[in-house]
Batch of 2 targets.
Target 1
Amino acid sequence: MEGPYPSKQVIEEAAKRIAPFVHHTPVLSSSSINTLHGMDLFFKCENFQKIGAFKYRGATNAVLSLSNEEKKNGVATHSSGNHAQAVALAAKINNIKAYIVMPETSSSVKINAVRGYGAEVILCAPNQQAREGTVDEIIKKTGATLIHPYNNYSIIAGQATAAKELIEEIKNLDIIMTPVGGGGLLSGSALSAHYFSPQTTVIAGEPANADDAYRSLQKGEIVPENPPSTIADGLLTSLGDKTFDIIKKHVKEIVTVSEEEIIAAMRLVWERMKIIIEPSSAVPLAAAIKSKERFKGKRIGIIISGGNVDLSKLPF
Amino acid sequence: MEGPYPSKQVIEEAAKRIAPFVHHTPVLSSSSINTLHGMDLFFKCENFQKIGAFKYRGATNAVLSLSNEEKKNGVATHSSGNHAQAVALAAKINNIKAYIVMPETSSSVKINAVRGYGAEVILCAPNQQAREGTVDEIIKKTGATLIHPYNNYSIIAGQATAAKELIEEIKNLDIIMTPVGGGGLLSGSALSAHYFSPQTTVIAGEPANADDAYRSLQKGEIVPENPPSTIADGLLTSLGDKTFDIIKKHVKEIVTVSEEEIIAAMRLVWERMKIIIEPSSAVPLAAAIKSKERFKGKRIGIIISGGNVDLSKLPF
């Protein structure tokens, strides 16, 4: 069952619960990128997390929070990629069955990785309705517990632990930036900043070609995603009511960026830092670079959400 | 002027001399690669070194060892890439002039990086003769000191410090592996193992398409490189007499690998470890994988020589 609203204590407990299972990822800096753009950037490298993305934090917290009764029937979810691998591995480690619904357009690297963790993969049409419908059917048939990729308090509390670690390691951050897709990482990071570093502002980056979160925050209510078209394939989903409520309260601003800006930021990190980040992870850096006049001299933590890319389909 | 033969004390002094200027790079492991191939691999990540390669160690040691008189006339060298950047940056930091001869086939990324460090770049035909001839001319004209990319004891002592750090951090290594091109990294690593961890065997990986070191070691004398044709563009050069003498004495074996094996090893590191390594760096890993039956269960340190790749020309 899903846990309670992520209070300070709930996030602290999630951090303790998942600590034996997740990597405490490093925070890296690049003096050449800092000099180039006039900001002090601190990259929390969740691309080095297990399964190559922060999603393993939320999935681990959600799976470990299940009752024994629930564990018997397994877990189910839908995901375009990283959450799928995260749930599959978290389930495998706990010896429970996982049913993963993936859009048939997912990269073969991601589908194979999920199967490699022993999960059952069910492919569906690449839209929200087909994904949710297929998961509902599976749950009816198997009694599995749904682990929603983001609109779930146990997931949000798990994702919050990345920003919590960043705050503990790097003092006096002016800003924390994350990408926003469904809003799990953003809402969790915003709560961690609120509880553990209240003077830090939280700002998201979002692809202009998938800007539902930007428009939702402007309008004050959830605006559904237009058919998104972005290289940042982790950010195709729409906000949920739980993530949006937190984002409305605790996120100051969403900065939208073009595809060209995303690719340039991704390339900058690959070339200067020699680490592999996926396009979604380049979105908050692109947003910081776009805002560099305003952000001049600021200490900015950026959560690098993941490093799972299909090397056969690079944008360079 | 070039320093003395790299004794234990000379390497210890080089380590102290360059310590304030170079990164103490991390040693990373990948449980998934270890499981996949049945070895315990420890990667010394010189791709995170300044200028993105171990070459900065040797260049820094050579530049810092110059007399004040020599510093006035500047330094000159020829290099297909990383050594060029290394000498350029080491010279810049010491406020001395650098003349860098580069083959006209060098990647634009590398040429621009060298110019970015304020060095004067002189392009020449892509062969050893043209490179050496052009450098000779420059030295005659300017009085600059030659910093040979590998056949130079100050360079060898500097490169030796990477293996020294690896040995200090990871105890009881059975094997240390490096790539071999001109032999600077290999000879330095072999000396560090000999002095600081004599029970550790040193083995090199070399592209079969540029196997002069393999053939030289077989024959007991330097065999010139056939026109090399390999993606491992850091390994196109031939051994020098100084590096060969050390390699003959202290290197047990050279394992040659195909282009396909190099690309597969490179891709494995990119996908599983989320770090960017250049093709030359994948050569010792490819050699370890090729030898995995023999190396089963061994503790193997691999020096990841660099991470400078032209992202527009990837082999995936």
Target 2
Amino acid sequence: MNQLSNRRVVVANRPTGEPKPSDFRLETVPVPELEDGKILLRTNYLSLDPYMRLRMNDEKSYTAPVPIGGVMDGEVVAEVSRSRNPQFKEGDLVSAYTGWQEYAVSDGQGVRKINVGNLPQSAALGVLGMPGLTAYTGLLLIGQPKPGETVVVAAATGPVGSAVGQIAKIKGARAVGIAGGAEKCRALIEEFGFDAAIDHRAPDFADQLKAACPKGIDVYFENVGGDVFKAVQPLINDFARIPVCGLIAHYNASSRPQGPDMLPEFMKQVLVKRFTIRGFIVSDFADHALDFYKAMIEWLAAGKVRYREDFVDGLENAPDGLIGLLKGKNFGKVIVRVAPETAK
Amino acid sequence: MNQLSNRRVVVANRPTGEPKPSDFRLETVPVPELEDGKILLRTNYLSLDPYMRLRMNDEKSYTAPVPIGGVMDGEVVAEVSRSRNPQFKEGDLVSAYTGWQEYAVSDGQGVRKINVGNLPQSAALGVLGMPGLTAYTGLLLIGQPKPGETVVVAAATGPVGSAVGQIAKIKGARAVGIAGGAEKCRALIEEFGFDAAIDHRAPDFADQLKAACPKGIDVYFENVGGDVFKAVQPLINDFARIPVCGLIAHYNASSRPQGPDMLPEFMKQVLVKRFTIRGFIVSDFADHALDFYKAMIEWLAAGKVRYREDFVDGLENAPDGLIGLLKGKNFGKVIVRVAPETAK
């Protein structure tokens, strides 16, 4: 086994603004001998997610940045390829945060056996995984939509946004989705059942959003920031709730935007409209994972929640996949097929 | 009775920036004949509060602005001087939002009989009234301080701030107060029992605040905004709570501050630190008024909460009182003695 080699993608440079392919480096290293208590994981699928851009900066976000030369972080679906740990056996299907590489050695910490039922393995990285749980917990625990209220979400064909809109509908709210381009907007209505879909590239985007929210916005699920957030602000209703789980529009920013400083005015709106803003990451709500899983399996089976996946073939194409994701080029959950021959 | 005259203060002009005495006008009008079902209230004390500045602008805040020529809004402690309403009798002591005037005719809507026990009537406008309830509900329902956590509040010798710090102490938290000048800071420690007091006028204010919060800030009770909020931001802990009940530093602003635009960076901090910001006004929590009243009476009797009042003599001096309040010249709850001869 020790002649196995591992291809992995490491951070070559800290990007300024948009990451470039040269900010990543693909390298091949030997897979180390397996010590007692360890398992060898072979990656089938790697999830690409907006937060990865933040991990490339030399600043603390939730955790320390990925060091220069370090393997890019990321969640994978993997198979236990060899086990010297009694809790795992060869062939176990697991999810783990082992990053952008074909193989990883683990002591089993944070490695979770998964069962996706009739769904493809990759669903464990999307609708049944972190993005689905993000949508479920952020919308229901913070957003708390009531029947008849208006819920707005951007990046709405993405794995979080599409789940937010569909769960909002299940709860009796009106779902307004924002996406880039006519094709995505059509899918929001026809495929995901949103009540309205707005193209954020339209020159009259803000006016269209206003027209789509005649009773204002009660829940704005914030995962993009930028111009969408600007257009949302005047529409926020009294007592609205704004869960904040991402700000993809700002992840490439290398300097503060020009003035005027809008923060004082924003705080005044917080006060006058008495709304709530709360940041969260999915791990804050890990306690709710089982509830989520049960509900989502049921909704998927009943056809109440649909999802899309957007595959990237080969680990070597993961950097381009992330660069495209940050530009909104994906349509659905972006997943890298790392070992497609073994993935089912 | 119909020869009675009523002195009142009306809005003469919409202020630009700081209000000037000429933005107000004192006028004398006859008190109208009392119709059936009505009561005549004679104002003993008028409360002056920061929110009044916002009501002078031609913009909706919580409610419509005071119209030009309209009587300035405000809460008063008054006596029922005549009654043609069976629910009130002459001599009843009440609180009501009848504004900056000596007399008001009311149908009884929103007029609340009060009982301040051994305390002076004016307490119903401060520690036992709207400011006390603001502190109690904002701190306990939104801020939710836990023992050992750090609570920071500005305008800390004011009626809201002083109650916030003292209630935080009662709940086992560490209270850090911000005020203007050495005398107020001394009172925070010696009179109100804060753990630390910082003068926001000190050139090294931000450094002093940091030193006073070695474990960061878990609850920031926002009632001022401006430079205090700037100094607070880097100290906010993960999962912190920020109740927002006022932004006095911005109330005189007539244009947006110069850039850079700090809102995107602030939202990123919301996300990364997963904190909660929630605006509120005291009427949102009216359900908690009885709990508050019981608790505060007990704390006052036990000497656990103290309060200060800063009196302005005569309705004609109310404009100067408000102008001074907006500059932080007051020390404690600002109350206008409108009819001192009858007020006890």
